[in-house]
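Forum: Protein Structure Q&A
Topic: Joint prediction for protein chains with partners

I've read a bunch of threads here and the consensus seems to be that you should model interacting components together rather than docking separate models afterwards. I'd like to see that in practice. Below is the full input, 989 residues plus whatever partners are listed. Could one of the regulars post the assembled result?
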Amino acid sequence: MKRLTTNEEIFLIAIWHLGDEAYGVNIREQILDLTGTELTFGTLYNTLDNLYKKGYVSTRKGEPSPQRGGHNKVFYSITRQGEKALQQAHELHEKLWKGMPKTVFEKGNKS
Amino acid sequence: MRKIRNHPPRLAKRLLTRLIDYQNRFAMNGDLEEVFHKIAQKKGYRKAKRWYWLQSLRAVPQYIRYLMHWNAAMFKNYFKTALRNLKRQKSHSVVNILGLSIGIASCVLIFLFIWDELSYDRFHKNAESIYAVVCRNEFHNMTTISGPAAMAPIMKDYFPEVQETVRFKSLHRVSVRYEERLFNEVAVFTDAHMFNVFSFPLVSGDPQTVLQYPNSVVLSESTAEKYFGTEQPLGKYMTMVFGDLKKEFMVSGICRDIPGNSTIRFDILLNIKNLEEIRGPEYFSNWQWFDTRIFVKLFDESSPDIVNSRFPAFVNQYFQDTMKRWKDSGSWTGEGPVFSFSLGNIKSLHLNSQILGVGASSTTKSAVLGGIALLILAIACINFINLSIGRASGRVLEVGMRRVLGAGRKDLMRQFWTESLLLVFLTVLAALFLAALFLPVFKQLSEKQLNVGSIFSLPGLLMSFVFLMIVATAAGGFPGLFMSRLQPVEIIRGRMQYGGKAVLTKFLLAAQFFLAVFLIFITMTMARQIKTMAGKELGFRKDGVLVVSLQENNWEQGPKTEALIEKFRVRLQKHKNILNISGSTMTFDRFAVLNHIKVKGKTYDVYFNPVFYDFLDTMGIRLVKGRTFSRERSSDREAVLVNEKFVKQYGLEQPLSESIWDAYDPSTPLRIIGIIEDYHFFSVKQEIEPMILHMRPSYSKDNALIKVTLDDIPKRLALVEQAWKEIQPDKPFQFYFLDDAVDSAYREQKRWFSIVRYASILAVLITCMGVFALTSLSLHRRVKEIGIRKVLGAGIRQIVSMVCRDFVVLIMVASLLAWPLAFWVMRRWLQGFATRTGLGPELFLFSGLITLGVALMTTGVLAARAALRNPVDSIRQE
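Posted by a regular:
Agreed with the consensus. Here's the joint model:
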């Protein structure tokens, strides 16, 4: 299985945090909270489409509301495959960072 | 629940919906609206709306990329279908592309011509503010660019608007020598600052100083090469002979050859100060000689109108003496001043046919040529459209299929448009190639310096592009419109479109035949007119008359020229192959001398030709009454011969007892001693005018006329040249034969004729190609019908006549419409000629019959072939 990109990783984590409430607007805000970057809707949906195509997320139509001008919400949830990929990414991170002294960067910054 | 009064901006929403729908992301739309409301609650609706707008605009680039992707995909499909169609019907593709490219090529050439006409004198940087001083003379009824040289410096002081004046004065027949190279040239004299005003680029030399000294000379590149070859010309001395004066000039600069589209032309440029010596100091002080071309440069913000409005006062102040002389001589008795000046912008000179010697070409000429070009293009386009329609109707199934699969009208139109764009693109490429190929021929026809490069220059390419779009739209638009209107049901049922009511095709065919008949008519009339003119009795015998220019500048060189002619006589007279020797200033259509002549107390402008003894014998002109000049009577030097027209025009009842007076030298009466038969001294295009032959000693006889036997012209020519070298070793031998001069007088008509002839041949050819292709298309579709007809007993003749009948009717209708128009046009054209041919009924008949014949031959061959086929094959075919 291919490794997740950082972007995909962030998206999946955001969706995981939101649980049942993961739809466009929420995901965007969650990502803003997590990373501090405000995505455009174009980027948001492009990445979501990619995740869907790769089978990491599944979609479900929600109910329309007047706030949304009568448009349905589309909720996203992580699939088994997505969970697995996230797991893998986590393991990779742990492995990579093991034994790295925290002072590495401080030193670098000083000089 | 709170009622939402504020919505996201409607327009932005609609835009966004449209963009998003394409990407199938309806959820995003809802998201955006939700966020919109959130922002609205926090920061107010204005901010929210702005944000929403921003979002929707952001989506645009993506949308465009998306559209292009799909269009490219469709285009690929259209392209592929188009290519397959081209390949499947090879002969039609060839007819289509070749026909239209011939049409476009001829258009390109003719538009190059017009482009050149319109581009005259625009290359000067100061063209906006350079004006020519245009003189209108009421007495001569002539408009020229002329004025006395003295006028220029005064003008600069008188008119504050005038920044600079530049004079040009040309002297002809200046013999120029460098070592052994000796030629006769036209020398142009101008002010030293000429190069600052006009943009004639110098190859070497500084424009400020190049003409500074009186002995400087500037040569054009080609002239420099003529004299110096590979030598470096700068600093070399050349000898020039002006009449009796011999002067040395040093080459101080070389200028680029004058472009073909320049009114001002020169090869040898000298400082105008030299004229003081050559023409005498009065050249610069005289106000009577209107012999200098004056150009003025106005200050950039000045208007010529102010100058024009002050010209009458200017004339009053400075031309009083000149006016008085006109009045005193009795030649001008009309109201108001006899001449007036105005400024004409240099860019407008060439297209002004009023101005003599400059407006060589008129706008009408360009318009006629442009019209012809458009005619040919129209014929070719009609072919293209007809064939596209014809072919498209063979593709009804494809169109039906596309419609069933969901193609809309727009898609179909786009498909046909794309297809014809592709075809037209190929065509334009072929056309540019053809145009480049035929440019040399066209250059000869048009007598212009056009070059291949200008086709591929920016305006040329731009023009081709415009052509491309227009023709493609016209040619693709019709079939597209036509096909897309068809109902799919009708198509699938297989209803035939051609052969039934193809009104548009028939109309267009008729239009083509109309143009063909029209052009054939014009060509035939022109051919007849030229034949009539060439066959016209001139009134003199042109064969074997050699005209040798004696190259004296001044018209008062009478004794000198007479001496030269006498020397010729002494040397050549005894030779048995030299029949006669004489002299004359006017020969044929080249150079005319008009003089004020008093007849019965009134002054007229009459052609006043100085001749020498034996003129009538040499030219073969018949004497009607009286006698010719005789060597025995010295009083004949003050006697004249007049032509019959003179007698008729001025109503002389007893011409042989009348006298006339030369208004410039009225001391002695000129006795009329004989009347000669009218002869054409101008092209037969013109009426014969009154003319006087005289032998006054002071007038120079410009040419020696030598009549030789016709048996061995080169030998006779060598003989005369030998004599010239002995008589005038310093001057080049310059000659022409009278019959060549006569022929070249029709050159203009012949040129027009050949252009029109080519045009009509092309038109008929292209029409013919179209008829061929259309017939074969329709026959292809009627194979079965013909087979069945044959089985039922129809003969070849019936089948051929069935196929051809349509064309016969169309051609008849087209001819009936074309004849009156052609007749009217040609009658107007013929009115410009004194000698004209009639417009007989055979012109009508033949123009129709030729078109009919050509069309029937094309269709007939095809029809016969179809009729000869074995019906078993054609009916079995599925």
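The longest strand of chain B covers residues 162-178.
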